[in-house]
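User: quick one - fold this with 6-O-phosphono-beta-D-galactopyranose bound?
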Amino acid sequence: MYYKHDPKFPDDFLWGASSAAWQVEGGTLEDGRTQAIIDLNSKTKQPFADNSIAAGHYYHYKQDVALMAECGFSSYRFSLSWSRIIPAEDHKINPKGIQFYNNLIDELLKNNITPIVTLYHYDMPCWIEKKYGGWLNRAVIDEFEYFCRVCFKEFGDRVKYWLSINEQNMQIVYGHWLGISKGCTNWFEQKWQINHIMNLCHAKAVIACHEMVENGKIGPVPGMVPIYPETCKPMDQIAAMNAEEFTEKIWNDTYVYRSYSNFLQNYWKNNKIDIGMESGDEELMAKAQIDFFAVNCYRSNTAKDALPEAEAKEYLLNKKGQKGELQFPTNPGEFALTKNPFVETNDWDWEIDPSALRYTLRYMWNHYRLPMIITENGFGMHESVADDGRVHDQARIDFLRDNIYQVGLAIEDGCEVWGYNPWSFTDLLSTGNGMAKRYGLVYIDVTDDQLNNVQSAKELELKRIKKDSFYWYSKLIKSNGSDWGKEMN
Ligand code: BGP
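Assistant: Sure. Structure tokens for the protein plus 6-O-phosphono-beta-D-galactopyranose:
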């Protein structure tokens, strides 16, 4: 990585960080909240901790917001727990759930931090699953719309930036991992039915936001992993395009053009897939005009050609945090993902590739010409407190510096980007690796073992320790992206 000069960030650029309710809050059965499918799913990921305590943000939110303010944040992206707000099928609104989010929002605003709120981040309430069997039932659309309308009514006077569904593409691509496929008997077809239902939920959220929130803006949150062709062999280029379509582009096209692309419709036709389109669906989708893209991007992938007779291979994620565990997928006749020899990887085999972020922003801007905010980007690593009582995370500083620099370059390239919110503010639970894979600027002094061996959060101090990256990020954002803490050349 080289630095050719100081890129400039807009004066009103939002600097912050990001989280999700089920990964950060804990208190999963506190004050009327009921369980979400992802809570149960997280219990199966032993030896890592489940999310019943997590970072204890539910109890420590004031301290966390004070730390954000000390760091110099101007934004914070977080999600609302559906089952904390609507805990049961009687649809009664939980006053304590509303109170918690009101407190959090008010605390943020008091500290001049703009809330950016995700409506759905992987946490469908169990009561919905019990009543309807999960995402495959179209009744979810009305339930989701009801939940969104409650949120807009309760918080829309103060929250103006809304995000509909977090990483819908990743939920379909990694359905088993994130628990979406529960109850499905034919995932090959049913994932497209679930995807259609999610598109209708997204559309309902967009329409209701514009109707109910004065000056409200809303966008989806795709999980972006740019795909490079392995070589300049023409078929590798087509394979990279196929991978791009099947892992991200078809979702982004649907959000923007508000109808399904020819690529997708032909794929469904050729594979005899019925997505469950009903009359009125196309009209509903057509009405949902998004205002921006919220972009999550951590890494890149590389694709090569896969012949129709190639052996199919599943994508097996690295669940241990020891390099070399990940298995790239092969989808015969479409593409195979493969190792990129030009980039380093972290302990979970995720590519460390800051240019991926510039590439993504350029790609999204060139295709869609919509403003973008980065809602996730970050570096997962094994960490502990050093003998001097501090947490030295130079690798994260290097990652963030190189990535933010690429955001600056993308802005100079002409992309409209209005904020950067890396994952995450405090350490929180990783989707599959508990506290073993940490992302925070602030360390939570607890291990998976400790979380697994107590009955209640009250037994734990969950002490917050500012990492080296906290101090580095603070200087950078207080200078609006000019104090890099490193000589430029
Ligand atoms: C994103 C999710 C987040 C978060 C992050 C890091 O895809 O939106 O919820 O978990 O990835 O992933 P992991 O925790 O698996 O390292």
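One thing worth noting: The CA atoms of residues 168 and 222 lie 7 Å apart.
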